[in-house]
Amino acid sequence: MNFQHFDLGQLKRGAVVVVQLRGNSANVRLMDSSNFSSFKNGRRHRYAGGLATRSPVRLTVPRDGHWHLTIDMAGLRGSVRTGVSVEPPPLPRLRSSTTAAPLSQIRHEAPPPLDNDGAQVWDVFISHASEDKAAVVNPLADRLRELGVTVWLDAFELRIGDSLRRKIDAGLAGSRFGIVVLSRSFFKKGWPQYELDGLVTMQVSGKQSLLPIWHEITKDEVMAQSPSLADKIARSTAQFTIHEIAEEIASVVRPDLAAGAA
């Protein structure tokens, strides 16, 4: 079978191969070296692409490697002129100083002993609105537990009428590290402004004591609800995956376990 071949060389995942077709439709295939060899020898092969009836054709490189592009007219009539170019992958997403600051700056030592002997100290507690349990809280807690981190969760689900500060204080009293999931559902609960403004500051030292996780909410929305929260060290589910957040927390709270899991 006659075909045009373009050896694209080494390409990074996320690069885009742009094919300009002039004159007719054509079969366009983007293949790694192994599948290109199978294609040349008439064997079964895998590819990105297919019958292109419009131009330009844009094919995203799925992984790092050596890539080949072929264009042929099998099953078609006429001829086609082609042009091929490669666009580099996009730069990493810009992360604000707030969402990129190290979590080690948040209080994460064990709390002082409680009056009752033998009381359990949890590595992490999570405060959240119930609406965010499925999308954020359960996957986060599951991944933390997989990493060997103990999580105190259900007692800190926040409902309308709860005192947010009392819930947070109780969690900090028995945990190394606190998390609060900020979302539109969270702010709809109607907690007083002074409770929100006091969320992430310890009364004595002034050191941030909670990690806010922003979920489907913008900095402007957080700012409108509580300006003091908007500039705290935080993580956003729009910029980090749940697993990335969990692994970063584990590396701070229990570096011994995180190193063993690596």
UniProtKB/TrEMBL annotation:
Gene3D superfamilies: Atu1913-like, Toll/interleukin-1 receptor homology (TIR) domain. PROSITE patterns: TIR. Transmembrane segments: none annotated. InterPro entries: DUF1883, DUF1883-like_sf, TIR_dom, Toll_tir_struct_dom_sf. Residues 120-257 form the TIR domain. This is TIR domain-containing protein. It comes from Phytohabitans aurantiacus.
